[in-house]
Amino acid sequence: MDMIVKGLIQGLQLLLSGDSEVLEVAILTIRVSGIATAISVLIGIPIGLWLALKDFYGKQAVNSIVNFGMGFPPVVVGLVVSLFLWRYGPLGELSLMYTPLAMVIAQAIIATPIVIGLSFAAIVSLNPKLRWQLISLGATRWQASWLLIKEARLGLMAAVIAGFGRVISEVGASMMVGGNIKGQTRVLTTATVMEVGKGNYDLALAISMILLLIAYSIVVMLTYLQHKGKSE
Amino acid sequence: MMRKFIGVCLLIVTTIFFIGCGNAPSKTETNAGKTIVNKDVILATTTSTQDSGLLDILIPAFERKTGYKIKTIAVGTGQALAMGEKGEADVLLVHAPAAEKKVVDSGAAIHRILVMHNDFIIVGPTNDIAQMKGKSAKDALTAIGKKEAVFVSRGDDSGTDKMEKSLWKLVGIKPSGAWYQEAGSGMGQTLKIADEKQGYTLSDRATYLAQKKNLSSQILVEGDATLLNIYHVMEVNPEKFSKVNNVGAKAFSEFLLSSEGQGLIAGFGKEKFGQPLFFADGGKTEKDFGL
What we know:
Mean pLDDT of chain A: 90
Shape of chain A: globular
Largest sheet of chain B: 8 strands, mixed
Strand content of chain A: under 5%
Order of helices and strands of chain A: HHHHHHHHHHH
Helix content of chain B: 40-55%
Strand content of chain B: 15-25%
Number of strands of chain A: 0
Mean pLDDT of chain B: 86
Number of helices of chain A: 11
Largest sheet of chain A: none
Radius of gyration of chain A: 20 Å
Shape of chain B: globular
Distance between the termini of chain A: 44 Å
Distance between the termini of chain B: 77 Å
Radius of gyration of chain B: 22 Å
Helix content of chain A: over 70%
Order of helices and strands of chain B: HEEEHHEHEHEHEHEHEHEEHHHE
Oligomer: heterodimer
Structural class of chain A: mainly alpha
Number of strands of chain B: 12
């Protein structure tokens, strides 16, 4: 218990003292997870919307794949992305292995199915008659879709939050494709694992506290946006 | 209201992208008049060099001096060697002589040079149920096997793991059963597991000293010639793998063996632990250790 309190205090101290190394790691964490989430939202919401509104042969199969993807193990994603990005892998020419971009790719792959699945659920849970009503009132397909997105914004924001929460807390894939390189690809989760390996439990705890603080602040911000939209 | 909300979202996304594009890595940099074409050097090494803190001393000094940027991938020796065999690393700093020789023989690595050594120790609980304190490494392992005392193995094909497996072979015991537990993790973690389970384990001295503050386990066996832990540096063969950065690898290898590098290695840990964690062995070969 004593250790946890100490870790919390040390974490705050590290953050407030502006320790450049910790700050760098924290900023990279936000940057990588933020970009990965943004990409997964840009890809995931349109696909979720399309899946919810379009009927086609094999839709069940696609849905089941998306649902499966929502729980896909990050280490498997890390391994497969590594195999592609290795120097002598199919995409080796791009020399992306052990760069933040590689981590963004892996995390975006992890988050996209979550965003698709939850935005699909958000749209589907709207009254199905709503869309036909909008169209019968003279809305074009695009206008109707747009109004549906607005109507489902609470659920869509939840999709964004869930995707972000998954990637910022992820360690296996980041370790594999990023390599935990000091000053380049070290993020808060991989730094925690490394400090535990070194036996610096207090420092590991302090870093974890910073991670929690950042994750919480961002989720608070997103939740605020979510409800601000609602109170309109 | 809705428009404002979307506006804020867009702003966040663009800000994130903007931050993301902040520092594009430059591939070229001039240093003391000569141009380094590819400044990224991938070093595959063992967790013990990272967990002991040695690399935090060596790498910044090397980077300042040469302008190269080292990308350290700290994994077990087994994985580090595998990265070398696939041409995915440029330079290797590892500690498993027999396995290293195989990699050199296969042509994947060249210029294998002895850099430093420290020693392995056998660590165990204070009650020492196998009563092996002060015994030779062979006798100690025999006692653990006979008594079926809990022994925690790294089980991760690292240099330490390879050493431990070869010791079991040496004493003719095939460790198995509930007393022999494979952690599948790095040295720091394995020491902690052994400590929690009141078991024995084989560790390198550097990691043990770095971890000591969290452990109640003690050093029971040390100073045995069979427990030498020798580190070699190797360059991945550029003739076999055209994409490796051999110039950078060579520079790192030369730095480790330079008087500056050797001095940093020899001095490391003295202040913090009261004893050096590594012994600089530039210019020596395995023959000097009777191997």
